[in-house]
Amino acid sequence: MKSTTSILVLCALAAPAQLQAQCSASKATAGSAARPVSYAEEAKDIVSTAVAAGSFKTLAAALEAGDLIPALQGKGPFTVFAPTDEAFAKLPKGTLEHLLKPENKGLLTSILTYHVVPANLPASTVVKTPFAASLNGQRLNIEVSKKGVSVAGAKVVTTDIQCSNGVIHVIDQVMLPSSKDIVETAAGNDAFETLVTALKAAMLVEALQADGPFTVFAPTDEAFAKLPAETLQSLLQPENREQLQSILLYHVVPGRVYSDQAIKADSASTLQGSSLSLRYRDGRLWVDQSTVINADLETSNGVIHVIDTVLLPN
Q: CB–CB of 113/135 below 8 Å?
């Protein structure tokens, strides 16, 4: 049986749009804090505030379909970057209907939690923050320019709608997180053909498609080409699977470790059991004897840093 709260939300969605928000907000401006919010009455939680505003009917329906209403009525605090009904209408035809189907609840939840940060971030903090970690696990990149503030490519159009358990910032489009896992991301990049072949030979594909999250220091095909040809061919043989597994797992660190975190660390423990040496020198991040040539490739279950040399455990 649905909770009284859920029934009330559904009823509110069906009601006329004359409902007015219980607080006033301020328009977003680049590099400046928003004006203080005034209240007509005591602040409501994030879900109730969104429903009352009248411009978030689709968002509320999506939260209902994703069973996220109880969570966002919890203590928090939360910051929600809330797409308007017009923002949802910008999605390709049929996308929203697809996401609202029960069988796609996991994907819908991933997208919705990408819009939520488990902290109270007023506009004055957002404009000073280059990124924020979402409930989805992936980072939201924040950019401030003369044109305003954008979060993961979505423009912030209204800020600081204060709620009893957090704050809402209104955005003009739906933000879509990376939907491909580490293996799918690598397989879709021509630079990682050898790495994908090695993962298959080592029977590690399924492991790196698990929830994780993982951080993978991924050697390019050119990096593998630095190995003697006979070494790579030998490693790919079934009888050498354990050795190949050991080498590949030496490239994997549990958790999401972004480059700004890695440059502050001295080492990182790998799934292989040994630790990688981390150094930041001459503007580059070194991992053992390899350098990171492309950092922070976001995936649904972790992050990839591209490296120029295969890492070999002792």
A: yes
Residue 7: CB atoms within 10 Å:
11
State which residues form the domain around 217. Answer: 182-307
Q: For the chain, what's the residue count?
A: 314
Q: What pLDDT band is residue 41 in, cutting at 50, 70 and 90? A: low
Q: Where is the domain boundary, 129, 150, 171?
A: 171
Count of domains for the chain:
2
Q: For 53-99, what is each residue's pLDDT tens digit?
A: 989 999 999 999 999 999 999 998 999 999 999 999 999 999 999 99
The string of pLDDT tens digits covering residues 263-283 is 999 999 999 999 999 999 989
Query: Are 164 and 207 within one domain?
Result: no
